Amino acid sequence: MHQIFRILASSIALTIAHPATARDVTSSVAKLDAAMQRWMPGIVREEKIGGIGIAVIRDGRLIWSGHYGEQSPGVPITPDTVFNTASIAKTVTAETLLALEAAKRISLDEPIASYVPAHDLDRDPRYKQLTLRILLSHRSGLRNWPDDYPDGKLAFDWAPGTRYRYSGAGIELAARYAEAKTGKPLRVLAQETVLSPWGIDRMAIGTLPSWSTGRLAMPVGPRGDYLDFTTLYPGLRDGSSIGAAYDLLTTTGAYGRLLEGLIAASASPSRTRSVRETILTPLNGDERYGCERRFTRRCPDRYGYAFGWQIHHYSRHRILQHTGNDEGETDLVYFSPDRRTGAAIFVNGANGWAAIARAVEIIGDEPELADYYRGLLAKLFDRQLAPLPPSKSKRQPSTASR
Q1: Cα 151 to the center of its chain, rounded Å
Q2: What is the model's pTM?
Q3: Helical pair 89-102 and 168-182, crossing angle rounded to 10 deg
Q4: Cis peptide upstream of residue 387 (ω within 30 degrees of 0)
Q5: Between 3.40.710.10, 3.40.50.300, 1.10.3810.10, 3.40.50.880, what CATH number should domain 6-97+189-401 receive?
Q6: Can you tell me the distance from the alpha carbon of 161 to that of 173, in angstroms, rounded to the nearest whole number?
Q7: Within 13 Å of residue 231, how many CA atoms lie on the same side as its CB?
Q8: Looking at residue 4, what is its pLDDT?
Q9: 3-class DSSP assignment, residue 30
Q10: Residue 383 has what DSSP assignment?
Q11: What angle do CA 293, 294, 297 make, to 5 degrees?
């Protein structure tokens, strides 16, 4: 990232009663509207990103969305803009696999080797140890992608289940197991088990649907230049993408509906909820995501990967979150089962972390998460913290939708 980031050190308080009254929500939304309109257009320009789309969940419901900047040169981002959300795809893959397991169509602990041929790996006896539970918690022992190896071939750096390493290739193997076991592509399985039951449209896995025509958020590189969509995402161009680890196309509103469904599904104890929320891979001390108190006021009491989600525990408070980032896109999604809050924040731009951190602080519902990302930005990018003055603007943005 080539610009000096200014990271927020204070958040705008946006409080609503629980359960919220209509008046509370209206007042809160007006404040959120005004604050985002005051800050986001300037951040888009300063950080050389195309734009940003935001959906906010409170009391388990999508209450507000805002859209700033451009999806392509001269074309504004709107509620209909379709973002390719990079690794956010892993959350939909995880929920699809959990739904299949709940229906007893697959197993989280069955070795995948009998169903998934992997010519780079299947001569190694460790390949027989891989299961969905290991793969979705990033303990496969594999690097992120084959091109991370000198010879371009996947190989184990250590035994599966023993250590953390983020691996998109591992997620793809998990999806291929589900496809082989059920005889259906992942995109069909997701539609059957999650998207259709939860009433979610404008979301597609590993494909360019007709409804995305003219609505795609073009990726923007670190220097602020628009990149070619099909060059950056060749699997979408040639139809080869599984979409399990990346290539999830969605609007902010569609992902907001997914968060609504997740919060509703977390209201009662269940085996699926337990799997989703049980940390399997602690991240304490991790070089990249490890929280350090010299940068962060309050680190999570416990944090790490569960089944497809990164989870933060602050006493009894839990936040499930996931990020996405590539050469032209930066994204964050999160939700809290206990506070019934959440957000989807999508940026078509490689320099999106400052905009995302500011958006989380302006939303104001998860100050612990905002503090965590301020700390990561200071740790990883040497960003100077700067307070965000309270917004006094009452102007309503024309780019926001409710």
Answers
A1: 30
A2: 0.90
A3: 40
A4: no
A5: 3.40.710.10
A6: 15
A7: 9
A8: 23
A9: helix
A10: P
A11: 55
